Amino acid sequence: MGRRTDAKRAGRRAHGELESEVLAALWAADAPLTPGEVQQALGAELAYNTVHTILVRLYEKGQVARSPAGRAHRYQPSKGVEDVAAKQMTALLDRGPDHQAVLQRFVTALSAEDEAALRQLLERQV
Amino acid sequence: MNISVYLPLLVSVLLAAVSPILVRWLGPARAGLALVLAASTAAVASTWALVLLAATLLPEAPVVAERTRWSQFVDPVPDGVGGIALAMLAVGLYRAAVVARRRRRVGRELRALCVACSAAGSKAGSEGDAELVVAPTDVPHAFAVSGRWGRGGRILVSVGMLKVLNPAQRRAMFAHERAHLVHRHHVQRAAVEVAAALNPLLIPARDAVAFLVERSADEHAAMVVDDRQLAARTLALAALARTAHGDGHGVALAYQHLEVSRRVAALGAAPLPEWRLPPAALLVLGGIGALAAADATVSFLRLVHVLLPGL
């Protein structure tokens, strides 16, 4: 895979990636956020207008809900059928190790020694 | 036929022997892909070799024995080998079918989970085209979910995971999952899983590939966020949070325990070189297995031709 195709793909995907970051910030927050608060939560790397545009696009797709708050809106993620989702997740993850092996997980649980080692590593870096 | 029919097995043994070495010394992207190709080729070649060996049982079948002079010839394959080959072939094919079915089922369940997690209020075709799907559980999880036929994958993350990480760390995690989707790592893993099911000699190659695709996604994430320490920290934080929720969900396999800390250590060190020569050597090794299987086929057909002139 050449560098050029990677770059092209990155350009095409950029909007989707920003949408994911904004949506993630809304989910991570405990309360609905205004565009300004989202911008802050994301480390203010994005322009206010960009954040606002993305929020509106997410709203139009039905992925976030909003309520008026003064001159702006507060946004929060629209949730799926939580009971069903949670039950399905549990069922999937309760399967035996053979099924676990199929999942492409970000991380798996650690052994006790590894846990201690990683904790030390994190503390060293702070 | 005598030697070449056994060569694919020798190739598989060699692949198994070099797999742990590759993991330690080579950059993950090229080594992983080359190992996938070599192991898949070796699996096909060794399975075909088993078919040929099992076929030497045919002359002993009464129907065939009556009509040919085969049984009068010296059988090139020692007694018993044909039977063993037939048994191994049957077990291998069965195991491969089980692996393929399990993969399909887990894939289907993951996609159903994505639909259930997607916003209830979202419009038309409620799945939507969102890249990110958030699962409503505090247990920290993150998966790459490939689309049907490997198209349009999604990133499935739990609220728990999103809350553990800060925005920069979330970016690193997303970059890791995107690397899986863009480079079709699930296809690579599926290929070696089937290969190892057909030919258990390839199990070390399968495990090496499982590790290499994670390492490759880690390196990609480190490149995207342009910070190896950030990528390493993200991984460590996520793994610690995951471990803190040790509630029986997702009991890790023994080799997976090892994985995360090795991945963190690898990100802490300088990137391993993406050399071209060793992966090329792997491909040659796989090719030798294929050539041997082809050679054995030619010998086999020649034998059949001699014994059954009518064919």
Fill in the keyword field for this structure:
heterodimer; A: 126 residues; mainly alpha; two-stranded antiparallel ribbon; extended; disordered N terminus; B: 311 residues; three-stranded mixed β-sheet; 68% helix; elongated
Describe the fold and architecture.
The complex is a heterodimer of chains A (126) and B (311). Chain A is mostly helical. The longest helix of chain A has 26 residues, at 3-28. In chain A, 62% of the residues lie in helices and 10% in strands. Residues 1-13 of chain A have low confidence and may be disordered. In chain A, a hairpin with a 2-residue loop joins strand 1 (64-69) and strand 2. Chain A has helices at residues 3-28, 35-41, 48-60, 82-93, 97-102, 112-125, and strands spanning 64-69, 72-77. The two termini of chain A are 37 Å apart. A two-stranded antiparallel sheet of chain A has the order 1-2. Chain A is extended. The longest helix of chain B has 37 residues, at 81-117. In chain B, strands 1-3-2 form a three-stranded mixed β-sheet, sandwiched between helices. Chain B is elongated, with a radius of gyration of 24 Å. In chain B, helix 1 packs antiparallel against helix 11 (277-307) and helix 4 (81-117) runs antiparallel to helix 7 (185-198). The two termini of chain B are 20 Å apart. Chain B has helices at 7-25, 28-55, 62-67, 81-117, 159-164, 167-182, 185-198, 203-225, 228-244, 254-268, 277-307; strands at 132-135, 142-145, 154-158. Chain B has eleven helices and three strands. Chains A and B meet through helix 1, helix 4, helix 5 and helix 6 of A and helix 4, strand 1, strand 2, strand 3 and helix 5 of B.
